Amino acid sequence: MKHGFLEQEALRAGRKNRKLFITLLIIYLILISATGFAVKDSIDLSEYRTIKVVVCLTILSVLMLLSIVYGLYRSFRIAAKGQNLILPFKDTTKEAAAEIIDREAAAGNIQAERYAEYFPEGKKPHGERLVLLPSYLLLINYMGAVTAIPRDKIYWICSQTGRKGRSSFIVRLMFFTEKQTYYMEGTDPGYFESIACELYQYIPNIFSNYDPFTLSYELDSLFDKNREEFLNFYEAEKKKMQLNREP
After folding, report:
1. Pairing between β-strand 181-186 and β-strand 112-115 as defined by DSSP bridges
2. How many other β-carbons are positioned within 10 Å of the β-carbon of residue 46?
3. Separation between Cα atoms, residue 150 and residue 179, nearest integer Å
4. CB within 8 A of 155, min separation 6: which ones?
5. Which residues contact 161 (CB under 8 A, 6 or more apart)?
6. Per-residue pLDDT tens listing for the chain (247 residues)
């Protein structure tokens, strides 16, 4: 049976997550066995405090085991009909969005596909990545969840280098959308700038006349504090770009 793009993503993430949870289960069993063997002769269950500690540790242990087992169970499930989708804009159903995404991917209409880190030739890529389709920008995290952002909801994309000593990231790709700002973080500013340039072939760089380093911080703050002013600035720059393109 041939799986669509989203089901393939779910299967790929499931295999990876399955290895993770099996490893965690083995570690859990080893730790429980070793701890039980080490303290079996030193526990005095006649003391109330000891009983209380044992009960608390047992409850925590059971919760950990249930979490691992549940994660392992979910790794075997195939996310059919877009169940691995996250739709920030509730303008359609997961099933309808999945149909569009699978159709465009099957037709070979993937316009860009880049990982958060650069991998040299011969090394298998992994981790977070983005996929640009005619209808959606997909942000795929390391657990296989796919955030689908409609192309017409995106205002601006830029590579933002962190401020030395003041930022918790080295570089991040910023996606200003109609609803909120999304980020994909990495460690190579030059690589992220190349991603932004590739995306500008399909999503116009409305603020191409500005220094992206300075403007990215200014707009990030403005977007959160005064959305109306942000939109006014965006619309003004969009009109300028349209006028410049007119013959």
Report:
1. unpaired
2. 7
3. 11
4. 176, 177, 178, 206, 234
5. 170, 171, 189, 213
6. 567 888 888 888 778 888 888 888 888 888 878 776 666 666 666 666 766 766 777 888 888 888 888 877 777 776 677 888 999 998 899 999 999 999 999 999 999 999 999 988 888 888 899 999 999 999 998 888 899 999 999 999 999 999 888 889 999 999 999 989 999 999 999 999 999 999 999 999 999 999 999 999 999 999 999 999 999 999 999 998 887 776 6
What is the spatial distance between Cα 131 and Cα 30, in angstroms, rounded to a whole number? 40
d(CA 128, CA 117): 8
CA angle 245, 246, 247 (to 5 degrees): 115
- Nearest partner of 157 among 217, 202, 199, judged by Cα: 199
The first and second tokens of residue 56, run together, are 């608390």
pTM score over 0.90: no
* Burial of 22 per CB tally in 10 Å (0-12, 13-18, 19+): middle
Q: How many CB atoms lie within 10 A of CB 1?
A: 3
Q: Which amino acid is at 96?
A: A
Q: Are 213 and 160 in contact (CB under 8 A)?
A: yes
Task: Write the CB contacts of 69 (distance below 8 Å, at least 6 apart in sequence).
Answer: 25
Q: Which two tokens stand for residue 10?
A: 């779910």
Q: Which of 132, 116, 133, 216 is nearest to 176 (CA)?
A: 216
- DSSP E strands in 141-214: the ranges are 146-150, 154-161, 171-177, 181-186
